[in-house]
Design a protein that fits this description.
Layout lengths: L7 H4 L5 E3 L1 H6 L4 H17 L3 E2 L4 E4 L6 E9 L4 E9 L3 H4 L4 E9 L4 E6 L1 H19 L6 E5 L3 H13 L4 E5 L3 H11 L2 E2 L3 H5 L4 E4 L18 E4 L12 H4 L7 E2 L2 H7 L1 H5 L6 E2 L3
Parallel strand pairs: 1-7, 8-9, 8-11, 9-10, 11-12, 13-14
Antiparallel strand pairs: 2-4, 3-4, 4-5, 5-6, 6-7
Length: 281
């Protein structure tokens, strides 16, 4: 997924390039280019052996809520290898620091380091555009109402991505801390909600971006035929959708990686049946 940033000029230099967050932001591609690139890579990953993306490694820091995460990948068609290194530290919010900090290292297939870059904006938008790819394939093309649970970076990025795909008539935001939902809603011209039920009422698309360990989305919140993006569950202990959602007979579970979902997803562990299909196939 890293090739969406324009590295052609850098690759001709024998010296590795270092890109700050500001540098990455300046050369970030438009939504349409990013959407096409991620869609193509998902398909390559699903139906060819050109893309290798093993399950990430997570180190749980003792006596801390911090996780140290490494995510390698390789695309032989592009001639690139990449490694994303991230620290996920929920307590950073109390310190006035981002909860996720990290870098991406980009190599050629000979192992030569080409670039080191900040991964903040890449992570936020890449995840949201992956959800957008899934939503375009699985949701109704007439979707107009979006509910977003959470008010962090992923909530903002998902609103950004889905507004590029749909003519949304209403976007509602709920967060456990109501003031954060109000602030984000004011920034993005959305509607803040006091409850999950209010946010999800009649929603065509629901995006869960909270990373909670206590499920917040129940079957009573979801209208028939709604599409749900669950992006907050990055470890088996995390669950955004409750059992009455995951174990319902009419719920179809789709993942970008069966292997990763089986290892990392709390929702997958609650689903009695296997993942129905891998996105990109």
């Amino acid at each position: 997924l890293l090739y969406t940033i324009k590295f052609e000029a850098y690759m001709k230099s024998p010296m590795a390039v270092i890109l700050s967050a500001a540098d990455v932001s300046r050369c970030f591609p438009a939504f349409s280019s990013l959407f096409d690139a991620i869609n193509k890579t998902m398909r390559e990953y699903s139906v060819t052996d050109n893309v290798v993306m093993p399950v990430r490694t997570q180190v749980y820091v003792p006596h801390s809520t911090t996780r140290f995460i490494t995510m390698p990948a390789c695309d032989v068609t592009l001639g690139l290898m990449g490694l994303k290194i991230v620290s996920a530290a929920p307590d950073n919010a109390e310190r006035g620091l981002p909860t996720h900090l990290g870098s991406i290292l980009l190599y050629d297939l000979f192992g030569q380091l080409l670039c080191q870059m900040d991964c903040g904006e890449i992570t936020g938008k890449r995840t949201a555009v992956c959800s957008a790819v899934a939503t375009k394939v699985l949701a109704s093309p007439n979707s107009r109402k979006l509910a977003v649970l959470g008010a962090g970076v992923q909530a903002e990025s998902h609103i950004w991505a889905l507004r590029h795909l749909y003519q949304l008539s209403e976007v509602r935001i709920w967060n456990r801390t109501p003031s954060r939902a109000v602030t984000l809603a004011e920034e993005l011209n959305c509607t803040p909600c006091e409850s999950v039920e209010e946010a999800c009422r009649d929603a065509d698309i629901i995006c869960c971006t909270t990373g909670t360990e206590d499920p917040i989305l129940h079957r009573r919140h979801i209208k028939p035929g709604a599409h749900i993006n669950l992006v907050g569950s990055s470890s088996p202990a995390k669950r955004e959708a409750a059992d009455d959602v995951m174990q319902a007979s009419d719920v179809t579970l789709v993942a970008d990686s069966r292997q990763a979902a089986s290892v990392e997803s709390g929702e997958k562990n609650a689903k009695s049946t296997d993942i129905a299909i891998r996105l990109g196939m």
